[in-house]
C-alpha cells in the first residue's frame, strides 16, 4: 500500500468490519488518521452523501488533522493549543473544543465517472443542512463526455441540399455563387450532384446555417431551394437499443398503410383519419407528430407516397388533427401531379400554417377543401370575411378554381389602365425610318413569327451562316408602386420563367466567359437546334386590336452599310406553362446575298443577329393609347377627367342595388379595415356611385392608389368580370 497517496481507492486500504462499521486506515500528510464509514443509512448521509469521521488519535498537539486548514474555520484564536473558542465561517459562536475532542468531518462525493471529490464541512453546517461544502480538486477524476447537439437532441447538420438547378449548370458554378453571396464567409468542403440536387458540405453547422438563410435567392434565372441535409445512415437492425429496427418497422407499417389506402384506378390516396387507424394506434406510429412537426417522418411519408402512388392526383388528409403542414414540406417535389387536396376537419388556424406546403409549386392543383378548420370558420364569421378568405387562399393556391367545393372566380384586378397624369406630349407609334423600311419590316415580322409559332425548323432559311442568337431572361420584379399592371399574370409568369433558365445569357447573371460563349448560338444549325428546345409560344398575330399588343420600331443602317435594325416589344403565351410573358427582341437583317440559302428560298433578307430578352408579363399599357397619324382625330375620343380633391361620386349614375348597410355597421367596417375618416367617406361614395358593396369598393380604391378617377375607370374596364356577390350586402 502506498501510504503517501490520500486519494487511493478504498480497496487499497486495509479495512475490517467491526460492529457494523467498516474501518478504513491510511496516511494523509504527516498525520496518521483512521476513519469509519457507517454501512447503514442516516439522515445526514441521505442529504450529504457518505461521511468519514476523522479523529487525531496519535497527536497531542491539538491540531486539526487537515494540517493547516484550520484557518478556514477559525476567525480568532485564544492562544491555547489545548482548546479555545473560535467563530465558524458562518459567523456563529462555537463552544470550546479540547484536544481530544477536536473532530471534523470529511464528505466524499463519488462521481459516475469513477473519480471522487473530497468535500470538507463544519459539523454544525452538516447537521443543519447548510451550504458549507468546499470542493477539493481531484486531478485523477474523469472528464465528462461532451457532445454538441441541436435543441432537438439531433447532431448539428453541416450539409445542405440545393434544388431548383438546371442539369446544365456545373457544381463549381453554384459553389462559386454560394461562396460569393454567403455572409459571413463559408468554406465548401465537398459538393456533389445527387438525385437532381446538389449536396454541399461545410466545415461546421454555423456555415451551413448561413447558407440555409439564402433559401429562395435568384440564380441562373430561377430560385434556389435550400434545405438542411443529413447523410443517410445504413440500416442497423442489431443496435443495442433496437432503435433502427423499430424505425424500420414503423416505416414498413406506414408503407403498408399507404398501399392499402391507395386506389390506383382513380389515382386517389385516402388518408382520412389515419391517426385513428387500429394499426397506427397499436404500434404507436407517430404519423403526424404534433409536438415535432419538422420531424423526419414527414419527408419519409412523402417519399413513400411517391413510390407507392405514381401519378397521384387526389390526396385526402381529412380528420387528422393537423395544425400545420410542415409534415408535407417536400410533397411538391414528390407528387407534382397533384390535382385535388382535401384538408377538411383539421386544426389549421392561420394562413401561415398552409405555407409549408409550397402550394405554388403544384402546377396542376385545381381544388382545395378547408371545410371544418378554425381558419375558415373564423374568417367566414367576420363581416366581409368570405372575400378576404377567398382572396388569401387564392394567393396561397394560385392555380385552383374550386375552393371548399365551390367554384372560384378569377381574381378581380382593378388595374389602372390610363395614366393618372397627362403627359406633355402624346405617346407616338413606333418610329419607322422610311415607308420602304416599314413595309420590309412588316413583311419580315409576319413571315418570321408565323413560322416561329408553328414550325421553327422552317426558320433555317432566315438565318445566315454566321448569324448569332442570344437569349436572356430578366427575373427582376417591378417596383412596388408600379405593380398594378403586373398583378393578373405575375404569379404564372414567375413559374414560366424557370423553363427558360437553361438558355439564359443574361450578362448580369452569367460571369464565366466560357459559358457566355457557349450560350451564344452561332450558325443556322446551332440556332435551329436551340429554338427547337425552348418552350412553345403563341404570339398575338390576329386582328388589328390584337396587333396593338406589339410595338415595332425600324431604322436603316448608316451608309455605306446596308441593313435594317428592327426592335419589337410585345407579349406571347408560353404554351408549356400556359402563362403570358413579355419580351423585347432585336433583329439585324441584311439583303440576301445571291446564291445564299435565303436567296435560294426566295427570301429578300437574311438575319445576321437575333437578340431576345424575356421578362415577366407587363401588358401593353405603355403604348396602348398611342396616337397614330394615319388615324383620324375623330376616331380617337380620349376622356380626361379632372382629378377630384374632395370625396364625391365618380360616376353619375347611382346604382339601384341596396349595397350599403346601416350607419352602425359601416362604422364597424371602418374600424375593421383601419380607415381614416376621409378614406371611409370615399369608400361609401364610391359604393353609392358604382353599386359595389363596401368590401369591393375598398378593394378597388386600394388597388388604384385611392384615386377616385382611376378607380372609376378601373371599374368600367373590369365590370364584365365582377361577380354578382360584389353587388350584394
TrEMBL record:
GO terms for cellular component: nucleus. Residues 1-13, 32-42, 96-105 have a biased composition (Polar residues). Residues 51-62 have a biased composition (Low complexity). GO terms for biological process: poly(A)+ mRNA export from nucleus. Its main location: nucleus. Keywords: Leucine-rich repeat, mRNA transport, Nucleus, Repeat, Transport. Residues 677-729 form the TAP-C domain. Residues 440-614 form the NTF2 domain. This is NTF2 domain-containing protein.
Amino acid at each position: 500500500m502506498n501510504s503517501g497517496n490520500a486519494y487511493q481507492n478504498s480497496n487499497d486500504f486495509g479495512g475490517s468490519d467491526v460492529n457494523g462499521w467498516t474501518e478504513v486506515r491510511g496516511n494523509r500528510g504527516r498525520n496518521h488518521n483512521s476513519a469509519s464509514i457507517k454501512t447503514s443509512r442516516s439522515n445526514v448521509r441521505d442529504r450529504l452523501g457518505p461521511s468519514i469521521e476523522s479523529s487525531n488519535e496519535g497527536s497531542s498537539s491539538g491540531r486539526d488533522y487537515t494540517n493547516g486548514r484550520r484557518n478556514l474555520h477559525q476567525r480568532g484564536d485564544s492562544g491555547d493549543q489545548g482548546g479555545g473558542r473560535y467563530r465558524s465561517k458562518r459567523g456563529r459562536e462555537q463552544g470550546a473544543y479540547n484536544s481530544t475532542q477536536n473532530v471534523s468531518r470529511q464528505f466524499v462525493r463519488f462521481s459516475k465517472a469513477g473519480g471522487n471529490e473530497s468535500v470538507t464541512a463544519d459539523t454544525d453546517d452538516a447537521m443543519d443542512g447548510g451550504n458549507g461544502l468546499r470542493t477539493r480538486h481531484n486531478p485523477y477524476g474523469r472528464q465528462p463526455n461532451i457532445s454538441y447537439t441541436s435543441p432537438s437532441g439531433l447532431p448539428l447538420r453541416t450539409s445542405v441540399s440545393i434544388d431548383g438547378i438546371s442539369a446544365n449548370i456545373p457544381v463549381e458554378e453554384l459553389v462559386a455563387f454560394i461562396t460569393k453571396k454567403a455572409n459571413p464567409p463559408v468554406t465548401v468542403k465537398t459538393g456533389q450532384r445527387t438525385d437532381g440536387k446538389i449536396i454541399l458540405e461545410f466545415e461546421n453547422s454555423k456555415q451551413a446555417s448561413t447558407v440555409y438563410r439564402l433559401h429562395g435567392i435568384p440564380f441562373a434565372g430561377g430560385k434556389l431551394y435550400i434545405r438542411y441535409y443529413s447523410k443517410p445512415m445504413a440500416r442497423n437492425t442489431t443496435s443495442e437499443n433496437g432503435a433502427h429496427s423499430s424505425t424500420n418497422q414503423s416505416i414498413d407499417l406506414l408503407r403498408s398503410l399507404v398501399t392499402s389506402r391507395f386506389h390506383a384506378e382513380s389515382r386517389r390516396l385516402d388518408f382520412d383519419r389515419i391517426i385513428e387507424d387500429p394499426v397506427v394506434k397499436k404500434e404507436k406510429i407517430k404519423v403526424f407528430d404534433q409536438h415535432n412537426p419538422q420531424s423526419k417522418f414527414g419527408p419519409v411519408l412523402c417519399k413513400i407516397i411517391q413510390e407507392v402512388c405514381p401519378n397521384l392526383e387526389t390526396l385526402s388528409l381529412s380528420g387528422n388533427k393537423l395544425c400545420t403542414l410542415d409534415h408535407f414540406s417536400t410533397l411538391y417535389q414528390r407528387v407534382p401531379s397533384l390535382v385535388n387536396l382535401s384538408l377538411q376537419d383539421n386544426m389549421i388556424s392561420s394562413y401561415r400554417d398552409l405555407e409549408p406546403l409550397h402550394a405554388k409549386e403544384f402546377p396542376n392543383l385545381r381544388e382545395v377543401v378547408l371545410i371544418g378548420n378554425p381558419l375558415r370558420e373564423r374568417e367566414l364569421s367576420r363581416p366581409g370575411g368570405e372575400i378576404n378568405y377567398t382572396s388569401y387562399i387564392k394567393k396561397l393556391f394560385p392555380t385552383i378554381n374550386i375552393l371548399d367545393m365551390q367554384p372560384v372566380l378569377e381574381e378581380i384586378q382593378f388595374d389602372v389602365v390610363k395614366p393618372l397624369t397627362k403627359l406633355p406630349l402624346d405617346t407616338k407609334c413606333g418610329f419607322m425610318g422610311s415607308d420602304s423600311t416599314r413595309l420590309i419590316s412588316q413583311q419580315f415580322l409576319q413571315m418570321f413569327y408565323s413560322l416561329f409559332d408553328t414550325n421553327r425548323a422552317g426558320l433555317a432559311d432566315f438565318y445566315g451562316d454566321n448569324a448569332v442568337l442570344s437569349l436572356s431572361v430578366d427575373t427582376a420584379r417591378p417596383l412596388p408602386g408600379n405593380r398594378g399592371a403586373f398583378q393578373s399574370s405575375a404569379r404564372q409568369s414567375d413559374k414560366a420563367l424557370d423553363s427558360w433558365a437553361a438558355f439564359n445569357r443574361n450578362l448580369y447573371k452569367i460571369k464565366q466567359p466560357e459559358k457566355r460563349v457557349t450560350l451564344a448560338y452561332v450558325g443556322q444549325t446551332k440556332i435551329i437546334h436551340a429554338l427547337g428546345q425552348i418552350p412553345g409560344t403563341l404570339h398575338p398575330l390576329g386582328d388589328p386590336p390584337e396587333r396593338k399588343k406589339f410595338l415595332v420600331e425600324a431604322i436603316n443602317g448608316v451608309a455605306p452599310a446596308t441593313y435594317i435594325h428592327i426592335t419589337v416589344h410585345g407579349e406571347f403565351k408560353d404554351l408549356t406553362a400556359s402563362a403570358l410573358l413579355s419580351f423585347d427582341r432585336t433583329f439585324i437583317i441584311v439583303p440576301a446575298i445571291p446564291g445564299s440559302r435565303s436567296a435560294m428560298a426566295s427570301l429578300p433578307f437574311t438575319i445576321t443577329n437575333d437578340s431576345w430578352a424575356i421578362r415577366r408579363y407587363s401588358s401593353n399599357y405603355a403604348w396602348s393609347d398611342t396616337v397614330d397619324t394615319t388615324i383620324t382625330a375623330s376616331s380617337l375620343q380620349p376622356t380626361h377627367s379632372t382629378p377630384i380633391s374632395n370625396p364625391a361620386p365618380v360616376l353619375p349614375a347611382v346604382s339601384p342595388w341596396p349595397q350599403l348597410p346601416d350607419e352602425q355597421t359601416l362604422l364597424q367596417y371602418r374600424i375593421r379595415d383601419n380607415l381614416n375618416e376621409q378614406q371611409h367617406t370615399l369608400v361609401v361614395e364610391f359604393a353609392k356611385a358604382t353599386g359595389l358593396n363596401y368590401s369591393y369598393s375598398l378593394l378597388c380604391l386600394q388597388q388604384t392608389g385611392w384615386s377616385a378617377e382611376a378607380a372609376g375607370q378601373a371599374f368600367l374596364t373590369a365590370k364584365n368580370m365582377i361577380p354578382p356577390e360584389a353587388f350584394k350586402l
